[in-house]
Design goal:
The chain is α+β, with helices and mostly antiparallel strands and 567 residues long. Helix content is 27%, strand content 29%. It contains 14 helices and 31 strands. 39% of the residues are buried. This is Proline--tRNA ligase.
């Protein structure tokens, strides 16, 4: 492709609103342009990268036994009402009406549509298992779009769905697609981890996220320093053992703590460690209030709390609500004397001896507090976030933290959607059974952004060969020079015939501009046709290493093949 024929609007300056490296470079190198907040046009270079990501995904999905289809982005509200998600998905779902006042949603995901398709087409166990996927634009009305393609309102996604007659069949497909996803991200060159995750609004229990390690990631990964264990911080169980001290229990006392509200303030004021304090928080689980206790140096994990209570929704009570229910401010909450509200506590609380807690009275805390003597706990459970240095849940090593960008997510949905939408089949005994489902997503445009985040240097992108928009950047220094122009055209034809994708910079630009744009775009190999063109000699440079050599045109094909094989 001749560069003069492509739209590659590079920028010299970093756009003011671009916070992270991938967003900055995708804009500067002319890969994307913003149309509105969280909505982007993919320029020709970006489109080529996306096509390569999609080709890898298609190959791996096809190898796993899935077949591709394409469903509508515009979805009937009735389908979402059948599943119940029309009322629970939240404001991220973009809703609209047509001229006949019929309600629709722009597809944020396609569980409802695929379930309706399969329930109408599949009636017998003989047609199962079945796995289907699509690559399509999705729409979610993010409250705060940010980081370019990493959190947008319109994005490209591969979503797949599987249907089964048994849990064993679902587990087999889940493992196949776990492997397929690992292959996809490995072939994209990414440094990633597959982590145990929460299913969130999707439903289901068994689920893994595929996280690309990056300092700009919005998720925290808890991983073992010596084993393969990795989990989203929300899902990592705590296996730490808490030994109760043999200190003699002292008599409960009230202590004045005026204007001391936080754990830090109270522990400092009373000269005790945060580990001796009991943090008390009021939560509302569905329509029921719950007091939750954790040690002062720990934080309540709402996902663990929600799963423990098997609640549809769990949220921390606000200051006004806390005052109405408990009669005191948040910073004064405590479990002593509470009778009509269940109290659940993290395991660490059970080991506290002569601790400190709020007295449900402004400016007062209890000291020498001992669980079960001074208050009763309905249930002890693992309710806190895991911390760095905690033992790894698999018993091997200790926990470390890393930031990650979620690029893929796989779920075992079970029968949540099939039961709600009556997607059933007849088993071998002629009995009606709900189909068992799985769901599997990859953020295609997000994957490109994650690659952009990992593969760059101070001058621009350093694309891996598997995803680079072109293999080679052919740069004649001066197209007005007959020898340079002639040799460039000769090499352009030769390299294309050798099945390389070649971008030839035939623009009438200064050499400095061409080289700067070349580094910014970041193709694997640059071939410069310059002053020695009349001798048939060109300069070859590897973008990744900066290695530069002069090569005669007769040896160029061999040299390029050697360099490409090393990438």
């Amino acid at each position: 492709m001749k560069q003069s024929m492509m739209l590659i609007p590079t920028l010299k300056e970093v756009p003011a609103d671009a916070e992270i490296r991938s967003h900055q470079l995708l804009l500067r190198a002319g890969f994307i342009r913003q149309n509105a907040s969280g909505i982007y046009s993919y320029m020709p270079l970006a489109k080529k990268v996306l096509q390569k990501v999609e080709a890898i995904i298609r190959e791996e999905m096809d190898n796993a036994g899935a077949s591709e289809l394409l469903m509508p982005a515009l979805q009937l509200a009735e389908l979402w009402q059948e599943s119940g998600r029309w009322y629970t998905y939240g404001p991220e779902l973009m809703r609209m009406k047509d001229r006949h006042d019929r309600e629709f949603a722009l597809g944020a995901t396609h569980e409802e549509v695929i379930t309706s398709l399969v329930r109408d087409a599949v009636k017998s166990y003989k047609k199962l298992p079945l796995a289907l996927y699509q690559i399509q634009t999705k729409f979610r009305d993010e409250k705060r779009p940010r980081f370019g393609l990493l959190r947008g309102r319109e994005f490209i996604m591969k979503d797949a769905y599987s249907f089964h007659a048994s849990s064993e069949s679902l587990a087999e497909m889940y493992d196949k697609l776990y492997t397929a996803y690992s292959n996809v991200f490995r072939r994209c060159g990414l440094n990633f981890r597959a982590v145990i995750a929460d299913s969130g609004a999707m439903g289901g229990k068994d689920t893994h996220e595929f996280m690309v390690l990056s300092d700009v990631g919005e998720d925290t990964i808890a991983y073992s320093d010596i084993s393969d264990y990795a989990a989203n911080i929300e899902m990592a169980p705590v296996i730490a053992q808490y030994k109760k001290s043999d200190e003699v229990a002292k008599e409960l006392e009230r202590a004045a703590t005026e204007n001391q509200k936080t754990i830090e303030e109270v522990s400092s004021f009373l000269n005790v460690s945060k580990q001796q304090c009991i943090k008390t928080l009021l939560f509302k689980a569905d329509e029921k209030y719950i007091l939750v206790l954790v040690r002062g140096d720990h934080e309540v994990n709402e996902i663990k709390l929600k799963n423990l209570l098997e609640a549809a929704d769990v949220e921390l009570a606000g200051a006004k609500e806390t005052k109405q229910v408990m009669g005191c401010a948040v910073g004064s909450l405590g479990p002593i004397g509470v009778k009509e509200i269940d109290i659940i506590a993290d395991h660490a609380v059970e080991a506290i001896v002569n601790g400190v807690c709020g007295a449900n009275e402004e400016g007062i805390h209890y000291i020498h507090v001992n669980p079960e003597r001074d208050f009763s706990v309905t249930q002890y459970a693992d309710l806190r976030f895991i911390q760095e240095g905690d033992p790894t849940p698999d018993g091997q090593g200790t926990i470390q933290f890393a930031k990650g960008i979620e690029v893929g997510h796989i779920f075992k949905l079970g029968t949540r959607y099939s039961e709600a939408m009556e997607a059933t089949y007849l088993d071998e005994n002629g009995r009606t059974q709900p189909m068992i489902m799985g769901c599997y997503g990859i953020g295609v445009s997000r994957t490109m952004a994650a690659v952009a985040e990992q593969f760059n240097d101070e001058n621009g992108f350093v694309w891996p060969r598997s995803l680079a928009p072109f293999d080679l950047h052919l740069i004649p220094i001066n197209m007005k020079d007959e020898a340079q122009a002639s040799l460039a055209e000769e090499l352009y034809s030769m390299l294309k015939n050798d099945c390389y994708e070649v971008l030839m910079d035939d623009r009438q630009e200064r050499p400095g501009v061409k080289f700067a744009d070349s580094d910014l775009i970041g193709l694997p190999i640059r071939i410069t046709v310059g002053k020695k063109a009349s001798e048939g000699i060109v300069e070859v440079k590897a973008r990744k290493t900066g290695e530069l050599q002069e090569i005669h045109k007769d040896q160029l094909a061999e040299k390029i093949a050697e360099m490409m094989s090393a990438l």
